[in-house]
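Re: that backbone. Tokens:
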């Protein structure tokens, strides 16, 4: 397995990966069926908008098996936050790749100075909820009409960056 940064040159492989996801995996990641992905969505998934850190996971043959992104934005209060989304191909789920990809996205976000994470998860996405709860057991969660929104803070300490479950005040 290899994890690398994605770019506009990866548009075709990312499109094929998204199309190859089951309807359930598409729904859990995008909250809708996106097959095929729109031009705008594909640009965002490739990192062409310039506001997201996009990583792709490939297997030993070079086939894409996962995608993750952290889209940075500044809140009205000036806090830098990263909205994180990821998906692992259906045949590769349950092997720890999602946790590994999440860990990399969070570490890279902390290095950019991100202060808070935002993770929108459908209530029925038990696997992602378990990943988040394992990593941030005390994370606060807000329930919206459609999703659960987890907002752990990224804090620093002498040994480097870490993420706490506290929400920003």
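Recovered sequence:
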């Amino acid at each position: 397995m290899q994890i690398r940064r994605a770019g506009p040159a990866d548009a075709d492989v990312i499109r094929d990966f998204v199309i190859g996801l089951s309807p359930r995996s598409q729904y859990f990641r995008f909250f809708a069926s996106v097959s095929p992905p729109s031009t705008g969505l594909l640009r965002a998934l490739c990192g062409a908008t310039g506001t997201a850190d996009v990583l792709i996971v490939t297997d030993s043959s070079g086939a894409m098996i996962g995608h993750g992104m952290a889209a940075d934005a500044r809140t009205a209060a000036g806090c830098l936050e990263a909205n994180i989304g990821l998906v692992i191909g259906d045949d590769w789920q349950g092997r720890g790749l999602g946790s590994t990809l999440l860990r990399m996205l969070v570490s890279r976000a902390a290095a950019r100075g991100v202060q808070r994470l935002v993770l929108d998860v459908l209530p029925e996405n038990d696997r992602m909820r378990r990943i988040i709860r394992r990593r941030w057991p005390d994370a606060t969660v807000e329930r919206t009409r459609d999703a659960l929104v987890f907002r752990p803070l990224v804090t620093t300490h002498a040994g480097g960056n870490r993420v706490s479950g506290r929400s920003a005040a």
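Residues 70 and 109 are 7 Å apart (CA to CA). The mean pLDDT is 89.
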